[in-house]
Amino acid sequence: MALFGISISMWLVGVIGLSLYIVLYVISITIYGKKPGRNPFVLPSLLVKKPERTADDVINNQSARDSVLRQNFTGSRIPERLDAIVIGSGIGGLTAATLLARARKRVLVLEQHDVIGGCCHTFVDKGYEFDVGIHYIGEMRPGSFVRCLADQLTDGKLMWQPLDVDFDRVIVGCVDGGGKNRSVLVTGDRKEFAKRLAQEWPDDAAGIEAFFSLLDRLKRGSKLYWGLKLLPLPLARLLIKSGLCGLFSAYFRYLHISLKQYLDQHISSESLKSTLAYCFGDYGTPPGETSVVLHALLLNHFLRQGGFYPIGGPSEISFCSVPVIEKAGGRALVRAPVSSIVCNETTGRAVGVTVQRSDGEYTVLAPLIISDAGLINTAKLLPQTALEKSRIPRTLTDCQLRSGHGAMSVFIGLRLPPGRCASTDPAFDDIRGRNLWLLSPSDSSAAETVDLQSIVNAYLSLDPQEAAAADPPLLFASFPSLKDPSWPRRRGDDRLTCAIVTFANWDWFSQYQEGRSGHRGRDYNELKNAIGRRMWELVKCQVPAVADLEVELFQVGTPLTNQHYINSPRGEIYGLDHSLSRLAPDSCAQLRPEMGPPGLLLTGQDVAICGFVGGMMGGLLCASAALNRNLIADLAKLIQADAKGILRRERPKAE
User: Fold this and answer.
1) Which residues cross the membrane (predicted)?
2) Helix axes 292-302, 205-230, angle to 10 degrees
């Protein structure tokens, strides 16, 4: 009892001390803190275009699009009196740049590739257009926080098409047509999805109920996780070490529990475990290595509003964002590889960047440098002295950070026979506005033997020749042309596209790293095409409607492809691996925009979490640091006020 009393007393002392610290911090900020910058947001209702835009309004003129997205870097195109330079044009970089532009800052975005967008860009080959990273997004109903943020970035011009109410089809077990499997449709109606699972696995009804109850609890606790990144680091770490975060939020109590560990404790059926964990490919870390909290965050993202796709394709995101940057006097330039971040030798402050071009080296200066290149790449850009004085090396070590798993992609262009139209042909109804997930072991035909962690580990441990002959344990297949209502007008209704993604081991392809893109040799092409063809065969087994269509285009991308186009160190597509150590509370506090030397901020996935929304949140946090204001709170208040009509010139009339 005495020990118990002492622990209570110590806890009270800690709470009192923490409260005093917070009060003193607020007072110091109020009296001595930097003045907040301009609020970049406008009322969401003012961004609604009238008349409402439709799929027919998507600009299809390639010259017009290139004039926005493919402006080559030249010295004469560098704006004068820059306020900030952004390295990289992924969604994290674009978010930070557009928000600063809305706050009347002049921003220069520098992209090493030949088109703006990062993983939001698309490419066209033989008339077929493919998305390379954005396959579907959740929470895009008008009025949601995510939608309102996207509208701010794109000036309200970006349109979103809801996918089918059953937006994902999951097949667990044998997927090559030779054995048993389980097939489940995932719906945006959370209660309906839980009901379907209970009907399919009645013996696990209690575990299913517990799992969805956990989703609800974790949904409510995510605000504190993001809030830690806005607090000063010492205060954030004090909150964590005091135990108060775990006391007030289940989010922090579950972060150390892996998805596999949780499912093993609550679910008996292996096929149900796989079904509940099916979309771990959306963040790229197997169930035994990541937190159940991250998975819950992803499921909550989709199970309340379903999935959405940008009308006109993902390149519309950057096409609508760049004009916002230009309106404030900024530019977004391509073929501008940044070779180093320039730091003042005396103060260590970041003051500019060096752009390495074939015609020479350019030094561009600005009072603020923002990196969307990822934490590992950013470390390589800094001078050694400035790097050692920053928090980046310690963060990489303390948080045990590493690159995520590599990925492979297959892009297939299909031609329909004369007289058939993809947009109306009922043969494609099963894949219209719907993704396909295939989870299967290579040595079993029984759905109940699928242990995702084991089969992923076994696959990634194969040597290249074995991988060429094996079935990937996880496949994600998307049919982008059947998601986009503007496709028939833009690309033709007799064309259909398919994109397939799976895990890959960087070491399978690393020996070809020195070769130039497109010229890596016969052995490389044979290896990647063997894996790619098997991926396509497995998809055709489950989608017979596409099996007999003419294949006009077949391209396979490897981790080396990802490294070339998005500069990922080991061919990963989600930045830092979303491991338990990366997601730990202290890692959350440390991974923030202010990790580098003074004058440098980081943005994107590595600051927040992976994906389109994670990248946007990273950009929002970065812009908050740059403008010295809590933009998450600013936007939330504006959305709430706008919904109530408080700030409108004319309040809505009562009906």
Assistant:
1) 6-32
2) 100
